[in-house]
Amino acid sequence: MPLLSVRNLKVAFGATEAVRELSFDVPTGGTLALVGESGSGKSATALSILRLIEREGGRIAGGTITLHEDLGPVDITALDEPSLRALRGNRISMIFQEPMTSLNPVLTVGNQVAEVFIRHRYMSNRQALAAARDALDSVRMPDPQRRLSQYPHELSGGLRQRVMIAMALACRPRLLIADEPTTALDVTTQAEILNLIRELQAEIGMAVLFITHDMGVVAEIADRIVVLRDGRKVEEGAVAEVFRAPRHAYSQQLMAATPKLGSGSPAAPAGAAKLLEVRDLTTRFTVRGGFLEERRSIDAVRGVSLSLGRAETLGLVGESGCGKSTLARSILRLVEPASGGILLDGQDVMRAGRVELRALRRHAQMVFQDPYASLNPRLPVHDLVTEPARIHGVVTARDQRDLAATLLKSVGLEEDVVDRYPHQFSGGQRQRLCIARALSVKPKLIVADEPVSALDVSIARQVTDLMLELQQREGISFLFISHDIAVIERVSHRIAVMYRGEIVETGPSQAVLRDPRHPYTRRLLASVPRTDPAGRRAFVQPLPAVSSPQPGARLREAAPGHFVRENAA
């Protein structure tokens, strides 16, 4: 008997069907993965199981959702609101994709976790806070007592996700729905979260419905897989069988688009002249903290040196909070460095005044992680993609639409979209618009900060293919920032590994990935999910800790072109 049975489920938003005749079972104590691209109906299905879909403007238009309990089957689609409140968070719980939007920013972590115990276990405030502390401890939260009095913004992404898991598991549910719980996390935090879910699943015997578009995560955690496309199930089976021989063309497409570590890197450009040189760059922030709100300085980037050749891609990889984005912004002086040197095409960026810096930025453009947030929603496409060209006087108002059409064609979009607005495009199309905008001034360098981390695997593949094509055609250099090491390998000639504000290892991509010398690099590689269920790891041992870089330690050449921090083991 399965724990949950979904039969012929239909979910509609107005006249649009988001889920069509969907049927599947979640086995008792097992893990079923729902996979598919954005818009395939994964999250709509999850919200329907908890009957939260009505709050999102949708409705269950047909079918049944049955929870098989000891006292008999329960038809969730027929429950009234009081019965649903008793079900949610108690027998069925959910971890949402973005913890920062799911947690209340004005309530402490302790109060939010305690609320679950007050509502479902009818505990007093004191009892609930004690239970909340134990719940945080159960999800391996460091220093759980101190976390009770902290607010969500004071925690990292990984710690916030642990709070969400603690809340979801507080009442030891029979079914846990995990909706993209690791998508925005770096590989080490992702490995810890997957490890945690599997350990707790074995400990309390719950079933898991895991929703993701990351096939590596599916291979690591799932027993069975259901592939969705446009609201319909196109394939279902045991994970090992589907991975070994996917039958549907769409499943095959997902597998082919998934980046796999070890697939190789592009050939390095021969004798590339230096375009960018960074020497001993330090960027410092002043923060307030402590009982007296004392001001103190934190080095987000500390003594970083790197170089980038023409038509070359340097992949910058590291955990969230290691300083990758701060370094990228410092190079363009969007964040002001405290010290160090930056040469762009032979020009001193650090000494440039306001006018000179503006001229320099014509040659160095940036593509941000969230394309929707970086596009003005009030401007049509022909204004958006030509904006840098207008600022730098490259195009006249008369020629603006012609330039827009040329740029759109260069990134694989049709000319007839020039009058559309950002909300009328998919995530992948919006990222193409951002790349087109960067190309409008014919830059020599593009800094791409997590440009594909929020995209589906097939869309991410299209964007990285586009960047490789542009590099070959236009000779553009890329500083490519990502926490996905398989993507970094695919696009990068060289790799730099960043840890706690410093570069701890750098060199040719294959040298770093096949012969990692620094403990932190080895830790990153050990965390990467394998896309082969047969090679699934047990996830029973915590990843080894890595000590902070020693002050004053320098990079030494361990092999030709391959450098590592001196204090590495």
Q: What portion of residues is helical?
A: 25-40%
Q: How far do the termini sit from each other?
A: 52 Å
Strand order of the largest sheet: 16-17-18-13-19-20-22-21
CATH class of the domain at 272-362 and 457-508: Alpha Beta
Q: Give the name of the CATH architecture of the domain at 272-362 and 457-508.
A: 3-Layer(aba) Sandwich
Subcellular location: Cell inner membrane
Domain ABC transporter: 4-255, 276-525
Membrane topology: Peripheral membrane protein
Family: Belongs to the ABC transporter superfamily.
Could you explain how this protein is built, in words?
This protein is of the alpha/beta class. Among the domains are: 99-170, no CATH class; 272-362 and 457-508, P-loop containing nucleotide triphosphate hydrolases (Rossmann fold, 3-Layer(aba) Sandwich), CATH 3.40.50.300; 364-442, no CATH class. It is 34% helix and 27% strand. It is globular, with a radius of gyration of 25 Å. Residues 4-255, 276-525 form the ABC transporter domain.
Per-chain topology:
Elements: E1 4-13, E2 16-26, E3 31-35, H1 42-49, E4 59-69, E5 72-75, H2 81-87, E6 92-95, H3 99-102, H4 109-121, H5 125-138, H6 144-147, H7 157-169, E7 175-179, H8 187-204, E8 207-212, H9 215-221, E9 224-229, E10 232-238, H10 239-244, H11 249-257, E11 274-289, E12 294-309, E13 313-317, H12 324-331, E14 339-344, E15 347-348, H13 354-360, E16 364-367, H14 381-384, H15 387-391, H16 400-410, H17 427-439, E17 445-449, H18 457-474, E18 477-482, H19 485-491, E19 494-499, E20 502-508, H20 509-514, H21 519-527, E21 555-559, E22 562-565
